Amino acid sequence: MNVLIIEDEFHTSERLSHLIQSYDSSIQILQKLSSVSESIKWLSSHKSPDLIFQDIELSDGNCFDIYQSVEVKVPIVFTTAFSEYALKAFQLNSIDYIVKPYDATDIKRVLDKYSSMKAAFAPLDQGMLKDMLMEKTPTVKNRFLVRIGDQYKTVAVEEISFIRYEEGVNFIYLFNNEKYPIDNSLTELESQLNQSLFFRINRKYIININAIKKIDNWFNSRIKLELAPNPNDDIIISRERMKNFKKWLDT
Q1: Is the CATH code 3.10.180.10 the one for domain 2-135?
Q2: What are the sequence ranges of the domains in the chain?
Q3: What is the pLDDT of residues 10-49, one digit of tens each?
């Protein structure tokens, strides 16, 4: 079986690939794509895979932007931060899904289903998918609950300067230099934050617009940022996010 993964978070994509091949080492991962533009280009120029694992929200758009440009008739498993309740309707169209954070049990469930029902999978109903996603947009959060040892603390989103992925863990950095680990993935956090205030600049960072101190042109038509507080890291806007980043700044 040949599988295509479309997921914009590098570590999530790598983990998904590992879980799939742990289920069956004979499964071939054809490619791991991270954006709408990459996916359209790949699907337009390659033979269709047997199965697609598809993140809904990508760095440069969402998944139905892909399928409005390219006709895809293979079954799709959506990987998403939406709740199971919100996505039950996907099953009506023979589309399955796994809710982040997922594990080996979830992968086994969808691959077992694919093996037993692959002949019955229907082509993607784009209109149905788009309508459901518009109705089930995640609620924007005003605060997050973080753990400090044996205690808990609430952090208002206005206090957050940036969120950074560090060695397998996401950390919230506050304007007052405090730092707290948080269990949510960057993709989940991106969907839970006010998009006029926060932006996912690359696979490692989500930043608050009020944290930007300086914007410089960088190599290969990219942009480098200086943030407050200083994360002691090169904050580079990835090329695929550049257009949306400039649009975000100008909103």
Answers
A1: no
A2: 2-135, 143-249
A3: 888 999 999 999 999 999 999 999 999 999 999 999 999 9
- Per the CB < 8 A criterion, the answer to whether 221 and 241 are in contact is no
Distance CA 213, CA 216 (A): 10
Q: Which CATH number fits domain 143-249: 3.30.428.10, 2.40.50.1020, 3.90.1170.40, 3.10.20.30?
A: 2.40.50.1020
Burial category of 138 from C-beta neighbours within 10 Å (exposed 0-12, middle 13-18, buried 19 and up): middle
Helix intervals (H) in 162-238? 186-192
- Which whole-number Å values give the CA distances from 169 to 35, 58, 62, 182, in the listed order? 23, 20, 25, 7
Q: Which two tokens stand for residue 151?
A: 């205690």
Cα–Cα dist 126/108, whole Å: 26
Which stretches does DSSP call E strand in 110-159? 143-148, 151-156
Task: Please state whether the predicted TM-score (pTM) of the whole model is above 0.70.
Answer: no
Per the DSSP assignment, residues forming a β-bridge with 162 are 173, 207
Residue 165 burial (CB count, 10 A): 18
